[in-house]
Amino acid sequence: MHKTVIVTGGSRGIGAAISLGAAEKGYDVCVNYLGNKEAAADVVQQITDAGGRALAVQGDMSVEADILAMFALVDRELAPLHALVNNAGVVDVKARVDEMTADRLTRMFAINLTGPFLCAREAIKRMSTLHGGDGGSIVNISSVAARLGGPGEYVDYAASKGGIDAMTLGLSKELAEEGIRVNAVRPGVIRTDIHASGGQPGRIERVKGMIPMKRAGEPEEISSAALWLMSDEASYTTGALLDVSGGR
């Protein structure tokens, strides 16, 4: 039986790697994107060219109406939902807390924390045995910043990911008897364009010396961890916070 995964922020970087990997595992894939329609279309094309089924869905994951519309479209167009990957997230420019504006904080928490909560809510309504579903998996993409704190750069980002960790732990216990496993992957420094979007295109070279493995990770290395947590091989794993960070 076909089953569907929704990957928020699924058009680039870690999200694209998870979308492509999930399709290889037989999932129908909802590739959510915010603004880069071409990147999302490319991921969908790669999946369909390989014989899979995918749908690109534009939506701002900080906007409840967009989230509701995305889930409704998946209900109509794809197989029953079996997994959610809360991957969409942002960083901002390097700043100390005493330099941060309320608008920056509102945006950060809306995208990185409120959005995942709302997506989880909608996934639970479809997957929980309490609601007549067949169970499933939620994988949250957190960050090792949640335990490192991001001092001098992005304490707000780290705090939002700390919230994701707490959500993962609480929700895993809340849903354990309802057939839904909830886990998180905590990436370290990964080779994606998120660093440039935060105004630090050279960040990997600057910080890789602090990583025990002395290199950045690749998106596929995060995808492998997320796909394992989604799989039946992780059937007794819930509430896990899995660091994939090169030892940092």
Your description of this structure?
The chain has 248 residues and is α/β, with parallel strands linked by helices. The protein has a single domain, classed as Rossmann fold (3-Layer(aba) Sandwich). It is built from nine helices and seven strands, in the order E-H-E-H-E-H-E-H-E-H-H-E-H-H-H-E. It has a seven-stranded parallel beta sheet with strand order 3-2-1-4-5-6-7, sandwiched between helices.
Concise synopsis of the structure shown:
The protein has 248 residues and is α/β, with parallel strands linked by helices.
- The top-level CATH class is Alpha Beta
Number of strands: 7
User: Could you give the order of the helices and strands?
Assistant: EHEHEHEHEHHEHHHE
CATH architecture classification name: 3-Layer(aba) Sandwich
Radius of gyration: 17 Å
Helix content: 40-55%
Q: What count of domains describes the coordinates?
A: 1
Helix and strand content put the structural class at alpha/beta
Query: What's the CATH superfamily, by name?
Result: NAD(P)-binding Rossmann-like Domain
Q: Helix tally?
A: 9
Side-by-side strand order of the widest sheet:
3-2-1-4-5-6-7
Low-confidence stretches: none
For the biggest sheet, the summary is: 7 strands, parallel
End-to-end distance, in Å? 40 Å
SS strand fraction: 15-25%
Give the overall silhouette: globular
Mean pLDDT: 95
